[in-house]
Amino acid sequence: MATRVTTNPKVSPFGTTPKPGAGSGAWETFSWYFFRVSGVALILLVILHLVIMHVTNDVSSTTYDFVAHRYANPFWRVYDLTLLTLALLHGLNGLRIVCDDYIRTRGTRLAVQSVLFLTAVFFWLMGTMTIITFQPGKTVAASILGLLHH
Amino acid sequence: MPAETSTRVVQVKVKRYQPDQSAKPFWQEYRVEAEGNDRLLDVLNKIKWEQDGTLTYRRSCAHGVCGSDAMRVNGRNRLACKLLVNDLGARISVEPMLGFPVIRDLVVDMDPFFAKYEKIKPYLINDEPEPRTERQQSPEQRERYDETTKCILCGACTGSCPSVWANAEWVGPASIVNAHRFIFDSRDRGGAERLQILSDRTGVWRCRTIFNCSEACPRGIPVTDAIEEVKRAIMYGTTDIA
Which residues on chain B are in Cβ contact (under 8 Å) with A105? Predict the structure, then answer.
């Protein structure tokens, strides 16, 4: 086997971390890791959500009052916000990679991914506004106006 | 003496592409008299030598070492020289590997494949002063990357990978196997550089652990396992992983 000697000063001994920031490596690695972590978290979050909304409580009883009662406890607002954020980011990341795989022209890919990103941001803002500002007996708009007024 | 070595007629359906005659690939059937322990390569040779000289395919050593005759046989990537008629049944379908540009009949363009192979720097990188003797390593250190030294660059894994079918830019399993061979070699110092190359948008994260590559490898390399080890090395920033 011939030895090819490199004069590249950046070559470090094997076993060191790839330098973040160069190329898309650090981002893609993070994206892959986020996929795994959010996937596991979502399994737990979604199962508990489904159990509460559909198993321990009958669908007919999960009414406006039910949600109002639940949202009196900030824990469930944080829970729902986490569920919303992780589900949207996890799904968005999946679709981003589907685009990377199947859309071969750079321009089209950028356009489709931009639409996906903006859609996710829109849904995230809608959900987050509702979760944070929800007050029993008031519309979301009224709640936001009320919060702004303070 | 194997039980079934008697002569029989096999029906071979070949997906052909003759760009000077037709812009579209087409299927052509041949009937060949073959022995049970003839290899598929022998059957193709019989067609070429006795029936149709225009049939085009690559072969060189004919003993499963050079990696020239990888093709899609009954839907799976195999080396034609390592398949016996006995194991294939009376009807055999033969196609060029997917995921490669077809040049003619079963001959595919391997240039993009080797370009991706070169991308991962498949040679020893070590700037340290050369020792007086060989660069030594223990049997355990050699064992660490033993499986991935077996690659013959036939392309069967890369041509079987749905991620490659979807995205030809992707570096593909064969390149990662050969990167693994150096990344986990105790004498090599280019591991970080290779891990950096393999961590980008067209790198290891495109692998969806479909395992087609492991199934296709004529050398029995656990390809998906090697890819997972490279993923772990990138993730943990070290090759010192279990």
Answer: none
CB B102, CB B25: distance < 8 Å: yes
Position A12 in a domain: no
Phi-psi map region of A113: left, alpha, beta (phi>0 left; psi -120 to 50 alpha)? alpha
Nearest chain A residue (CA) to B196: A18
Measure in Å the smallest separation between the Cα of B23 and chain A Cα atoms. Answer: 23
Q: ipTM score of the complex?
A: 0.78
DSSP secondary structure letters along A23-85: TTHHHHHHHHHHHHHHHHHHHHHHHHHHIIIIISS-GGG--HHHHHHHHTSHHHHHHHHHHHH
Does the pLDDT of residue A14 top 90, yes or no?
A: no
Any idea what the CATH number is for the domain that residue B59 is in? 3.10.20.30
State which of B74, B108, B142 marks the end of a domain. Answer: B108
Instruction: Give the dihedral of Cα atoms B4, B8, B14, B18; nearest 10 deg.
Output: 130
Q: Is residue A75 within 8 Å of residue A48, measured between CB atoms?
A: no
Interface of B with A (CB under 8 A): 123-127, 130, 163, 166-167, 183, 188-193, 195-196, 199-201, 203, 205-206, 231, 234-235, 237-240
pLDDT more than 70, % of chain B: 98
pLDDT digits (tens, 9 = 90+) for A40-71: 999 999 999 999 999 998 888 888 889 899 99
Residues pairing with A109 in the sheet: none
- Judge contact between B230 and B176, C-beta under 8 A: yes
